[in-house]
What we know:
By secondary structure, the chain is of the alpha+beta class. The chain is built from 16 helices and 21 strands. The chain has two domains: 50-288 and 533-564, Periplasmic binding protein-like II (D-Maltodextrin-Binding Protein, domain 2), CATH 3.40.190; 293-530, Dipeptide-binding Protein, domain 3 (Roll), CATH 3.10.105. The strands form six sheets. It has a six-stranded mixed sheet with strand order 14-18-13-17-15-16. It has a four-stranded mixed sheet with strand order 1-10-9-8, with helices on one face. A four-stranded antiparallel sheet has the order 4-5-7-6, covered by helices on one side. α8 (319-327) runs antiparallel to α10 and α14 packs antiparallel against α15. It is found in: Cell envelope.
Amino acid sequence: MNRQDQLTGGRPRLRLLAAAGAAALTLTAGLASPLDPAPQQARAEEGKNVLTVAVAQSVDSLSPFLASRLVSTSIHRLMYEYLTNYDPADNHAIPGLATKWAPSADKLTWTYTIRSNSKWSDGKQATAEDAAWTFTKMMTDPNAATANGSFVGNFKKVTAPSPTKLVIELKKPQATMAALDVPIVPRHVWEKVGDFSKFNNDKSFPIVGNGPFILTDYKPDSYVRLKPNKTFWRGAPKFDELVFKYYKDGDAAVAALQKGEVSFVSGLTPAQSAALKSQSNIKVNDAPGRRFYALATNPGAEAANGDHFGDGAESLRDQKVRQALFMAIDRSTLVDKVFQGHAVEGAGYIPPRFSTYYWKPSASQNLGYDPAKAAQLLDQAGYKKNGAGKRVEKNGRPIDYRLLCHATDPNDKAVGQYLKEWFGKLGIGVTLECLDNVTDPWLAGKYDLAFDGWSVNPDPDFVLSIHTCAALPATPKDTGATDNFICDKKYDDLYGRQLTEYDTAKRAEIVKQMESRLYDTGYMNVMAYPNAVEAYRTDQIKSIETMPKAAGNIYGQDGYWSWWSAVPAGSSGASSDGSSSTGVIIGIVAGVVVLVGAGAFFAMRRRATAEDRE
Length: 614
């Protein structure tokens, strides 16, 4: 998830609402057209090509052990290698820090060969010991497991018999062993950290890493600067500098794109997309997205120790009430009017882009738009209208749900107005609470409804794990890995089964049962699957890799391909229309490993988190 943009706000854990959907991502490349004096001046002064990614999301943490927002986890993919990566063409697992991997006959021991040509940016060799230390730290320190603990929960022991050999012993088979989306950090740097819950990795620069980029500077709520790693084993990036710059206003970022002051913008509204399509030197990319856009209900915030907290509406603990809200929402209207066709109607938890795990309810199960049936469900649940036409809680107070929305997301605000109208006809009030920081009230359980969304990875394990009982915070004062305080035994049982199932078809069937369970309980109302709508200047970016290659996104990929592959205009290489190879795939195909006894499920990977979570 990256994961995660979920809801938003505060640091370590999940909440990135559909903020990512509105994220105005831009890149200011130093290569401007002759008519753009400002970029030309910047290029003349600096003498280098700068690619600036403007984001509508601030970094929650530069520590890969804490971060959950999409912008943060995307940056970590640039800074650190994972054991495996995902082919930009079709998402199948390919070498990362590990060149090959294989399980034992009983699938309880996995052996990885660690490449010998990866160095940390301070000159030290990256070894299996770094990976073993990273995983073991997550296994033994709860604070180090904040962001990615679900990956190691089933680990029994991790060792490094040699610099190029990593061995992971499992308690039971685990179907995600080629999809461990965990940044491997340098032990010699991180073993000096004391409290992992407080260390944000943002005080000393440059930050030691072994990915395609090296982080050189950071200012909270402002920018992140990275330079190419000239010794990166796959080859150095083409631009001289990559900058992620925080933009709170998406219109300002689009205006900058039009002026040539930035090179790339993501999260375009339909109006912005339509306007940019007619302009020269600008290419709009509109592809099926990897995110879902949902309405989450507060089921009653509870910690693992059984303590309840927060102030969510009592009525939302009733399944019939939650299902009534499902049936009061006209998804087709949202797709047509809000997304204006740049999305498809939602249903299951996994977007249709991931066809193996995509699920839709049967005709008899479907909670389609039916206001009359919704009203009947509310009546049956005992929430009838009073003399003023308002439905009331059991305490006699009129129902008025607080709906958390992200202040920078136009979709949240537009959909919120429709929900106010539709729920109002049922006698239910809605108060939109659009905040810059929705994380704090979300983590505190002080909300009733909230716009929610995650970028889903080829392997759905992570986004499935955040709804398990194990993801709840230990106590109300702690921060858990939970998305929405859901704890359901049937769902948990299914989660355990899918994690140990190596057969792809059988695992997919269990995952679909999990999606069905989430749908029936009504905790997560997936309203739409938005397209990835983004644009870049072809007079500044000559070519850039989408993922998947045929029809995919540029920002928020399951890897580092877009920024690593980007070629400045005027350079030799592929044209922006992809008419010739950028070389991104060269060397990747050659390095593909034949997986031993594991099956095609290895084409998986996790999140995409957060304020779009990844």
